[in-house]
Amino acid sequence: MSQDAGRNGGDGGNAGWDPAIADLDGFRRAQRLAYRCAETIAAQLRPGITEREAAALMQRWLAANGANDCFHQPFAWFGDRTAFRGFIGVRHLGGFNPAFYPGGRKLEKNMPYILDCAPTLQGYTADIGYSGCLGSNRILEKLMDDLLEYRQLILDLVRQRKHLSEISQAVDRLCARHGYEPRHKAYPFQVLAHRVEKLEADEGRHLSILNFGVRNIGKLVGDLARGRREGWSPLWSSGQPSDHPPTPGLWAVEPHLGFRGVGAKWEELLVVTAEDAFWLDEDVPQVRRWSSRGLLPLAQAA
After folding, report:
1. Domain CATH for 139
2. Are 130 and 39 a contacting pair, CB within 8 Å?
3. What does DSSP assign to residue 159?
């Protein structure tokens, strides 16, 4: 089904809101802003820059280009920190593990990096992850190639209305077949994805605590409370709380692979309606990369 067709179908489902009748253009603008930020700062990275400095560059770029709030402030991870070495799930929430936050690690030649930002633009929030390397890294290239299969798998299973926990478990099995570590297990609550919601639009600057935007986290907490009453969760994982069909809404999905101290991921918004699902935008860096390497036509033909 096309994206236009998807926007015309379905009721609200058990999450009570169907993006098929929502304005997706605002979310698409926010996501494109986030990717432009990552690509712009990636082009400026040089040996010796620290994670903290790279994250600050992203923060300043986003503020200068219209973002006035966030789901979280920008993150940057370099070297083996891209594989989340020493990161342990929920301990990151509330800042208990400072390793999660951008630190003093310096970028070196042929070192992989991940840039992650989640700006809010006129009330619309995106959350993206961008992997790259300052030079070349064969392991990273292989991880980034293989991430195409995860994007296709997730969409196919959501369209089949498999339970979210089943889909996350299928991602775990695919990681095992590839011999990779599912490093999204190191995120708070071991999430593969989380929901994002529309906020009230205004021109003011908004508060962040421990790098997370108060308004967006407030929406997520509200979804947690509502979902607990209605039998769904806004935090998508392999666990029991996600043992339900896909709920309509926008989901920031981020399969994160690790292998021999190298990590790679993409993160982008998946639109789930009552009847269908589609990626918010096909003009994203990872899709352009797969197409340029001749991977996308082959995968589509298969």
Report:
1. 3.90.230.10
2. yes
3. H
Q: The domain containing residue 101 runs over which residues?
A: 3-301
Residue-averaged pLDDT of the chain: 89
Amino acid, res. 122: Q
Q: Which residue has the tokens 């293989």?
A: 146
Contact 171, 192 (CB under 8 A): yes
The conformational region for residue 275 under phi > 0 = left, psi -120 to 50 = alpha, else beta, is alpha
Summarised one tens digit per residue, pLDDT across range 6-27 is 333 333 344 555 665 568 999 9
Query: pLDDT digits over 153-163, tens only?
Result: 999 999 999 99
Question: Alpha-carbon distance 229 to 247, whole Å?
Answer: 14
Domain total in the chain: 1
Mean pLDDT, residues 213-226: 95
Q: How far apart are CA 256 and CA 268, in angstroms?
A: 12
Question: 46 — alpha (psi -120 to 50), left (phi > 0) or beta?
Answer: beta
Kindly state the average pLDDT of the residues 159-179: 98
